[in-house]
Amino acid sequence: MSAPSGQRVILHDETGGNQKDLIKTYDSTSTLASLVGQQVAGNWILRVTDLALRDIGTLKKWKIEIDIEEGAQVIRNKSTPALQIPDKDPAGVSDAVIINQSGLLREIKR
Q1: What whole-number distance in Å separates Cα of residue 80 and Cα of residue 78?
Q2: CA distance 1 to 21
Q3: CA Rg, the chain, in Å?
Q4: How far apart are alpha carbons 76 and 73 in whole angstroms?
Q5: Per-residue pLDDT at 3
Q6: Cα distances (angstroms) measured from residue 23 to each of 6, 15, 59, 65, 67
Q7: In whole angstroms, how far apart are CA 78 and each of 19, 33, 105, 110?
């Protein structure tokens, strides 16, 4: 995942084996902790790659939930791109959700 600042965080890396569906929640108490305090406005980009041969997949949907410090507001956005993930292609696929509200990130879930 890439924040609007360009900072990248690896959410999931080469685990799961032959798992059919990857349904996970990541948050700012662990995986996304380095994003706390950043500006939230802009493009939040999820990039998915498949580096194993014979694994075929689709990025069906993903969502982001951000708590900001200003006014204790929660911002939610989601995407349902239905993108085919190319097999054994390091470029993968990317999809973005745009956050228009400004503020500093207090907590995040993806």
Answers
A1: 7
A2: 19
A3: 14
A4: 10
A5: 96
A6: 25, 13, 11, 15, 21
A7: 23, 20, 17, 10
Chain-centroid distance, C-alpha 18 = 21
| Amino acid type, 102 | S
> In residues, how long is the chain?
110
Within a 10 A sphere around the Cβ of 64, how many other Cβ atoms? 20
Instruction: State residue 17's pLDDT score.
Output: 61
Residue ranges of the chain whose pLDDT lies below 50: none
Question: Which pLDDT does position 18 carry in this prediction?
Answer: 66
The pTM assigned to this predicted structure is 0.85
What the block records as the tokens of 17 is 């084996």
pLDDT at 77: 92
Cα–Cα distance, 66 to 109 (Å, whole number): 7
d(CA 13, CA 31): 12
